[in-house]
Amino acid sequence: MLVSSGLTAGRPAFAADSHRTQRAARRTARSIAVRAQKEEAAKGWKFDGSMQRWVRDDRFAGKSLTTVQPLSGTAYTVWPVMWDYLNSKGLKQVEEEEALAMVNKGAVVVDVRLASDYKNEHIAGAISVPMFRETAGNEGWDKVKRFVMGSLAMKATERDPDFLANMEKAIKNKRQQIIVACAVGGTLETVVRVASTGKSAKDPDRSFGRETRSLKACYELMQAGYTNVVHLKGGLSNWRYNGYPTESS
Q1: Considering only CA atoms, which of 142, 138, 160, 162 is closest in space to residue 150?
Q2: HEC string of 181-204?
Q3: How far is CA 115 from CA 7, 118, 166, in A?
Q4: What phi-psi label fits residue 235: left (phi over 0), alpha (psi between -120 and 50 degrees) or beta?
Q5: Contact 160, 212 (CB under 8 A)
Q6: Among positive and negative, which fits the CA dihedral 18, 88, 226, 181?
Q7: 145-171 pLDDT per residue, tens
Q8: Which of 9, 157, 191, 244 is the most buried (most CB within 10 A)?
Q9: Which range has highest mean pLDDT (56-65, 70-79, 133-142, 215-224)?
Q10: What HEC string does 107-135 produce?
């Protein structure tokens, strides 16, 4: 007669129980994370025109805008929706040293600034695929936009409808590791480190991180099926400031 020795498939019973407990704990943690994500996504937001930023406002939960049709240019997804998506997908954000190490292993830096800005200066080896272009239309609001921005010594711009098509020409393999960069980078983080205490605290100015063109480009690329997208957190400005190589063309 075989007497039980406390082994289960060659493994002690307590070890099998431990693994089952760990798997259950992981399932529970994933369930909680998914529920928290859905609850976060269900909250509302609005655009604060006086401060020119998106702010959390749960009075608009379930009623907040998800797309906007500007008076000049094409419709676009609002930033809070992009922010939520990028967080849910775990977008990797890197600083200069890590980005350079990735480039040395075959990653490609994609500069999404205006073509003219790229020509003046860009990260050494980066390719140019602008997400925006100078306003091309000649309708009434296009002209108003050019006039207003020109009076501020700035360029009137709009989303480039050929952004994804141009990306497909430049990067033919959607599994290629891409490091997306703009002028200032931006972040998904909603907290800042308090210098006096060294602790992190919620930043009311960052309800949805810090919105930039490179983060918006990351959203569009990931939506289009690019599977290895990375974001350069400090953009060209930090890259240059910290002494990493740049060039012009």
Answers
A1: 142
A2: ECCCCCECCCEEECCCCCCEEECH
A3: 67, 5, 12
A4: left
A5: no
A6: negative
A7: 666 676 766 677 788 999 999 999 999
A8: 157
A9: 215-224
A10: CEEEECCCHHHHHHCEECCCEECCCEEEC
| 204 residue type, one letter | P
The tokens describing 93, both together, are 């954000």
Exposed e or buried b per residue across 207-240, where buried means at least 16 C-beta atoms within 10 angstroms of its C-beta: bbbbbbbbbbbbbbbbeeebebbbbbbbbbebbe
Domain containing 88 equals 78-132+159-247
Tokens coding 71:
């008076």
Measured CA angle at 7 (ends 4, 10), to 5 deg: 130
Structural domain count of the chain? 1
Q: Is pLDDT larger for residue 58 or for residue 94?
A: 94
Q: Which two tokens stand for residue 95?
A: 């600083």
Q: Is the pLDDT of residue 17 over 70?
A: no
Residue 95, helix vs strand vs coil:
coil
Q: Is residue 113 in some structural domain? A: yes
User: Does 66 map to a domain?
Assistant: no
Residue 55's SS3 state is strand
Tokens of 111: 């500069």
CATH of the domain at 89: 3.40.250.10
Flag whether 138 is in a domain. Answer: no
20 belongs to a structural domain: no
CA–CA gap between residue 72 and residue 79 (Å, rounded): 18
- DSSP assignment of 1-18: -PPP-SEETTEEHHHHHH
Top mean-pLDDT range of 63-72, 139-148, 205-214, 234-243 = 234-243
